[in-house]
Amino acid sequence: MDIISFEELDSTNIYAKNNLENLSDRSVVCARRQTSGRGRLQRSWLDLGGDNLYMTIVLKPCSESLNSFQNLTQYLSVTLCKLLESYGLTPQIKWPNDVLINGKKIAGILSEAAFQGNTMKGIVLGIGVNLNVERENLSLVTDKEVTSLNLETGKTIDLSDFQQKLTSMFFDNYDKFLKQGFEFIKSDYISRIYFLDTEISVKGFNSTVTGIAREINDCGELVLEKDKKKLVLNIGDIL
Length: 239
Prior knowledge:
By secondary structure, this protein is α+β, with helices and mostly antiparallel strands. The chain has helices spanning 12-18, 72-85, 149-153, 159-172, 174-180, 186-190, and strands at 3-9, 28-34, 53-59, 92-94, 98-101, 104-116, 119-129, 199-203, 208-216, 222-226, 229-233, 237-238. 22% of the residues lie in helices and 33% in strands.
């Protein structure tokens, strides 16, 4: 894979989208600082200082594998959980792809497709992971509880080592995931979620729905039960 490193970018995803034509499949763009990071549903992803991970993987799919790409963020969330478990932690996944430690968010994942006309030219898969954060900087995030790997382990984290491990683990099973889609990670994914058979509220772009979380289906969608009817959600934020 090609690794392109910067000291600072506005956003690794923005850079990857703007330079997609010149980047090869499976390129990795990373930056030590990120000034305008973005998350899902138009939220921002704050740079909390220190050696934290800001990285985007460039992927250029063939037509046979397009169906699997809708679950890329879930595949990456499972991969990240497995890496965090090697540090002695017990991460959980908050549907669809947030990764939590002790109920606090440690990572954000965002996938964006780039089109030329009606043709998809590629996908940029971005991830930010809080690796080394001063405890007082956590207060900069006001809309949710967050944490970092150094605070959870009590040790300074080597950014280069973490990045190398995560990218290697991602590509180790990437081709199998493309062939099998969500089915390849379904059991690993479900074993790390925590909210099934409980009442939850899910916020979308324009509305919020409440119901009992019954299952994650074979497409990675969340199935809620409300008034004895099933609602299938493919986007949203659990409140």
